[in-house]
User: Which sequence fits this backbone?
DNA sequence: GTCATCATGTAAGCCGTTACATGATTGC
DNA sequence: GCAATCATGTAACGGCTTACATGATGAC
């Protein structure tokens, strides 16, 4: 999901993708090369991404003109490597991947996937600008309900030694704070339903 | 680690272990039978646990007399099954596991393991009453330092759209709150260094 | 010269999930 | 009779981690 999301912002090769994943997910929960490259192969086999030839003409990868603030970020990446460009020979060949229409559809499916659980909610939020406001609300609402259910389950008890009780309290607090956050996200969608950044290249989705 | 920790509190069979794991870790991050039973086999092969015959004499599993508050918890579990006990025949044979001395050593090793990272810090806290106060401090301090380092890394930037910025802020807040909690744990050890519940059966550890 | 960075991959091993198989007992 | 709970396992599949292999470039 994260890979597909990043590729919506522009074509990228594996190495760069890894850096941006670390940027997005934190260097800790990030994938290793040993899992990223096979994952990209899988995605390619399934037609969700396609490897495009690194054209000598293009200024560099990832040059899709984006809405506002993302531009600065990309410019920074570009600058880092614009120095030693122009020689077609040099550096080991990079394999640049682009998301396909099937990939965009799959990304949308995954972003909307039923799952109030922890798995990838952060990633969903990170890319929810690609969804319509009502879809965003769906995602947020499911998470909110899951958090509420979880909080309701954790009633009373508080047994165990000092440390275990402290842990339970901390986890409760964490749950409540996430719930607050999600509720704030929901309000923000209601107050200002920003138009989605277009996900599919052509027409409007479904 | 969690399995070994639970077995310190008393002998248990797989099914009960699963329930207590769900209790401890939350039903979400808990293991399935398909991984628990193989895991127990592995632990047994490695001599960290041993399967003990379910003696018809013993009131039930997990009857180690514990310090204070744990007693009530265990009594509750006992009551639930004391109803239909006494018939040696009946129910499918349960395989009851007990932790060995090697298992206790391994548990201590894992609780003290160098790793400021997320992995199992919650479980370490849940069982840190088994450690000496100075060992507890080690564990907490490592986590504190890791959290500080992580917070220091996340300076400024805050790029991306509204949702991504909101996510980053939330994650920052979460990190800071965990840091606060860990610092509180450290202070609590300083203020009141409670004696450890004995981990090894015989003499004092190392 | 050697180290860090860029860049892509393969192979072994481990382990978790899911689904399946089995079988007794209790409650409706 | 049927479902749920208790209780233990096996088998297939998938996928992540780690380590290894390769090779260019630029900085010190």
Assistant:
């Amino acid at each position: 999901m994260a890979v597909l999301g990043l590729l919506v912002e522009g074509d990228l090769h594996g190495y760069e993708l890894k850096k941006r994943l670390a940027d997005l997910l934190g260097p800790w929960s990030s994938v290793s090369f040993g899992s990223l490259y096979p994952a990209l192969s899988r995605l390619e086999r399934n037609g969700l991404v396609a490897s495009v030839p690194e054209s000598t003409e293009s200024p560099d990868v990832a040059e899709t003109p984006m809405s506002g603030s993302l531009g600065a970020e990309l410019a920074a990446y570009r600058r880092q490597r614009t120095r030693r460009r122009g020689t077609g020979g040099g550096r080991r060949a990079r394999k640049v991947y682009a998301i396909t229409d099937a990939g965009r559809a799959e990304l949308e499916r995954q972003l909307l996937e039923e799952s109030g659980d922890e798995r990838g909610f952060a990633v969903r939020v990170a890319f929810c600008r690609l969804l319509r406001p009502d879809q965003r609300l769906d995602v947020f609402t499911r998470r909110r309900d899951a958090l509420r259910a979880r909080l309701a389950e954790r009633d009373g008890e508080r047994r165990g030694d000092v440390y275990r009780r402290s842990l339970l309290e901390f986890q409760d607090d964490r749950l409540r704070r996430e719930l607050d956050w999600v509720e704030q996200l929901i309000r923000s969608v209601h107050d200002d339903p920003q138009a989605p950044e277009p996900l599919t290249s052509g027409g409007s989705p479904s």
Remarks:
- The interface with chain A takes residues 26, 28, 69-70, 72-73, 117-118, 122, 125-126, 128-129, 150, 159-164, 166-167, 170-171, 173-174, 177-178, 181, 184-185, 188, 194 of chain B (CB under 8 Å).
- The CA atoms of residues 9 and 203 of chain B lie 18 Å apart.
- Residues 13-16, 33-34, 37-38, 41, 91-95 of chain B lie near DNA strand D (CB under 10 Å from a C1').
